[in-house]
Design brief:
alpha+beta, 7-stranded mixed sheet, 28 helices
């Protein structure tokens, strides 16, 4: 019996080659899309599940709530947090480790390189189990002169030599230490949020010159992870966090002098499972590597299912459309004794056979496209057909899709009444089938139109983000890295002066942070004569050429002037404890608003008070008078909103950014700066970037999303149009005699084409009305994730354009087939009449 079912199904598929091809190609594309996106989703969900007891690993986050500034959450914490948590939660935390990356320089054989070295605690291996190739991790993390490196690091610097026992020099801040390689481990897999090439034990005594790294509660520079005991729970620890903060954190006087203030008024800590960080991080800022997004995973999953749904709709549409011809076959089968159950199994078998063939073709397409898909997503995706779980998923695909797509045609066709069909020479329930087909065509094109709208909005937002005004001129700006290293500090002025003399250089600025570099520092301040505590602004130390180099317009007042010796932050040498010195500062427009200074002109002359030194364990203050208000800029993170910011001319502030404005060729400038750099500080690697390129790169995820939506939208449209073409061909075939009569009565080819095109235009127009509100609602929610976004009205022309595209495509699909039928000789259509 099974053989009979198979042969009947196979003969039917061969007999109806057009409809078979449309269904197989459509389902192949849908299944290919589903498999590719399933691999992507599985990969995203696998992040950090490689560690033992991964469900008990947590990352700690810090939130600053300073008055006058928006809440700022970062994935980094203070270096003091680890020991304080271990003591306070000793019954709940099994182990904890800090990871701190401090822009280390590695020197080997007279050459210098920048490498991702993480300084960690000895408990690191209790949380994260690395695959050790050579040596011993416990030995590597038991001595502050040992280091563990990954395989790529070992190959790069030591080649085929056994790296164990080899030495290398690491320089960061005042630390210049020779380390001995004690372990080599496999490179980290891509599906982890951790990122490093080498590990060394934290030696806090080596970083006394940089107290912000491991001391003080108001500075967050490293990451903290802990492992919860198996008999403890997350809710219990979370409920005690407030008491932990208030009993451990000390509020510095420059943050607040209010005796009733609680640390939780200004600081809060939170934690989340490490396995949730990749897709749903509490803070995306300052992570070790770029994270994924749950919205991206959900969006792609929905798109894949929609494409597959469009292909299934094709199957249902074409199957019901052919019911007129198959009704007589079914009626005769029933007369000859076939049971309804047998007929249902027959047609479900045809559906499963079709889906099975489509899956095989889809898998071939996956194997061909997977390398390109993986490379585009910067992942290592593989389809493991030998894996039983993979095979089970594929079989489930065939069964679920085959049964769902074939259920209605099987039930509808097996339900015909033989007497009615054979007497009237037509299929029963034809009116219901026509209505169903119209509904499904509307559904198909609603999906396609929605995807076109989403693609248009994503593209428009990406272009807007890249080209939006960030407050300064980003073109022809070269930013040099590593300018703030301890080795470069003594040569900063010499480098600046020589670069300024290079041909094509128009201006050079030295700042505390690089433009679009991601790092942002804030500084607590007070308003003299007011009782407001805990105010904070983003801080940027600058030089006299800052505004000129970045081309930032002054809104009110003036810039720092070399001719005015009182400009900037005063030096604290010789100051008495508690003394208040005088100086000047510039602020931006947002700072004017957040400090309550009124208008930019009204802000001139008003003062902010900061701590500039500690003398005899007491603060030395400076009242800085506002001399200038500048335009708001998005200086630090291109994806984030601009901050209220103060610009200090401060002699003792660490300066880490060298930015060069130039005119002329990039290559000549880079080589000129490289020559100066290597001549003065050959032990520091020369690294650079162009600011406009960095800003473009910041929105690479949106570009990637836009491209993928374009591809999947095209696939959905292709599948939908294939189904529409099949329906149009069937309709034209059914109306051959009608068309012949119309032509005999004087109808032109244009009249007949217009008749058929309009028949299929109405579902597309209705699909527009259904798709537009859903697409607008979804994309408005997506746009809410951006601090700067396109105007809402732009969605309306995008919707109209999507409707026009879908309509034109449907006309092209139907019109070509209609014109072919309309041009046929009516005599052939009517010769049997």
């Amino acid at each position: 019996m099974f053989k009979n079912y198979f042969l009947t199904a196979w003969r039917h598929l061969l007999k109806n080659r057009l409809f078979t091809a449309i269904n197989i190609i459509g389902l192949s594309i849908g299944l290919m899309s589903c498999v590719l996106i399933l691999l992507f989703v599985q990969d995203e969900l696998s992040y950090d599940r490689i560690w033992e007891d991964s469900e008990r690993l947590y990352q700690v986050n810090t939130t600053y709530n300073y008055p006058g500034s928006p809440a700022n959450t970062t994935s980094r914490v203070t270096g003091r947090m680890k020991e304080a948590m271990r003591l306070y939660f000793k019954d709940d935390i099994e182990a904890a480790t800090r990871l701190n990356s401090m822009n280390s320089t590695v020197r080997i054989g007279g050459s210098a390189f920048k490498e991702a070295i993480q300084f960690v605690d000895a408990e690191f291996t209790e949380l994260f189990q690395l695959d050790v190739i050579n040596g011993d991790m416990s030995v590597a993390l038991s001595n502050t002169s040992n280091i563990a490196i990954n395989a790529s690091f070992a190959t790069k610097y030591f080649g085929n030599i056994n790296p164990i026992g080899q030495t290398l020099e690491v320089a960061v801040y005042d630390l210049n230490r020779v380390y001995t390689v004690a372990a080599v481990f496999e490179d980290l897999p891509h599906n982890t949020t951790l990122s490093f090439q080498a590990l060394a034990l934290i030696d806090e005594s080596a970083f006394l010159s940089a107290p912000w790294e491991f001391d003080g509660w108001d500075s967050a520079n490293g990451w903290l992870y802990f492992k919860l005991r198996s008999d403890s729970d997350e809710v219990k620890v979370s409920s005690q966090l407030k008491d932990f903060i208030n009993s451990n954190v000390v509020i510095p006087s420059y943050v607040s002098t209010d005796k009733n203030a609680q640390p939780t008024d200004f600081w809060n800590y939170s934690f989340q499972k490490l396995v949730d960080v990749q897709l749903n991080a509490i803070s995306n800022d300052d992570q070790m590597k770029e994270l994924g997004a749950l919205t991206k995973v959900v969006s792609f999953s929905i798109v894949a299912m929609l494409i597959l749904a469009v292909a299934c709709v094709n199957f249902v549409n074409l199957a019901t459309a052919k019911s007129t011809k198959r009704a007589r076959e079914i009626a005769i089968r029933k007369v000859l004794g076939a049971q309804r159950g047998q007929l249902i199994r027959q047609y479900l078998g045809e559906s499963l056979l079709l889906v099975g063939i489509a899956l095989l073709i889809g898998l071939v397409l996956v194997e061909l496209l997977l390398p390109f898909f993986s490379s585009f997503l910067n992942k290592h995706l593989t389809l493991e057909l030998a894996n039983p779980m993979t095979l089970l998923q594929l079989v489930a695909f065939v069964l679920v899709i085959g049964l769902l797509a074939g259920a209605y045609p099987a039930l509808a066709l097996s339900n015909v009444v033989p007497a009615t069909v054979l007497k009237a020479n037509k299929s029963a329930g034809q009116g219901q089938s026509v209505l169903l087909r119209q509904v499904l065509v509307v559904f198909q094109f609603a999906i396609s139109i929605g995807l076109i709208v989403a693609t248009g909005v994503i593209y428009a937002q990406t272009q807007y983000s890249i080209t939006k005004d960030v407050g300064y001129n980003t073109t022809n700006l070269l930013s040099v890295r590593n300018f703030g290293t301890a080795q470069a500090a003594a040569h900063q002025q010499a480098i600046r002066d020589r670069v300024q003399r290079l041909p094509g250089v128009t201006s050079v600025a030295v700042t505390s942070s690089r433009p679009a570099g991601g790092g942002r520092n804030s500084r607590a301040l007070q308003l003299p004569g007011q009782s407001i505590n805990g105010l904070s602004l983003a801080v940027q130390a600058v030089d006299h050429e800052f505004l000129e180099t970045f081309d930032i317009p002054l809104i009110a007042g003036r810039s720092f002037d070399r001719a005015r010796s009182t400009d900037g932050t005063p030096r604290a040498e010789g100051a008495k404890p508690g003394e208040v010195l005088q100086g000047t500062v510039m602020i931006n427009e947002k700072a004017v608003t957040r400090l309550g200074f009124g208008t930019p002109d009204q802000a001139l002359g008003k003062a902010i008070r900061i701590v500039i030194a500690m003398v005899a364990e007491q603060e030395v203050y400076a009242d800085l008078s506002v001399i200038g208000v500048v335009k708001d800029t998005v200086y630090h993170r291109p994806r984030n909103e601009g901050w209220g910011e103060a610009y200090y001319l401060e002699p003792n502030y660490p300066m880490g950014g060298l930015t060069i404005r130039y005119a002329g060729e990039r290559t000549e400038l880079v080589e000129g700066v490289r020559g100066i750099w290597q001549n003065l500080i050959p032990t520091v690697p020369f690294q650079y970037e162009f600011v406009e390129d960095v800003i473009q790169q910041a929105f690479s995820a949106e570009k990637q999303l836009a491209i993928l939506f374009v591809v999947f939208s095209l696939l959905a449209i292709i599948v939908a149009c294939m189904g529409l073409y099949g329906l149009a061909a069937f309709t034209a075939e059914q109306r051959t005699k009608e068309i012949g009569v119309r032509k005999v009565l004087g109808a032109s080819v244009y009249d007949i084409v217009r008749l058929l095109v309009w028949q299929f235009s109405k579902p597309v127009l209705l699909a527009c009305l259904l798709a537009w509100p859903v697409a607008i609602f979804a994309m408005l929610n997506w746009l809410e994730t951006f601090p700067y976004r396109i105007d809402t009205w732009i969605l309306f022309p995008i919707c109209l354009g999507a409707g026009a595209i879908a309509t034109l495509i449907s006309w092209g699909t139907v019109g070509g087939n209609a014109a072919k039928v309309a041009r046929a000789n009516p005599v052939r259509a009517l010769r049997y009449e």
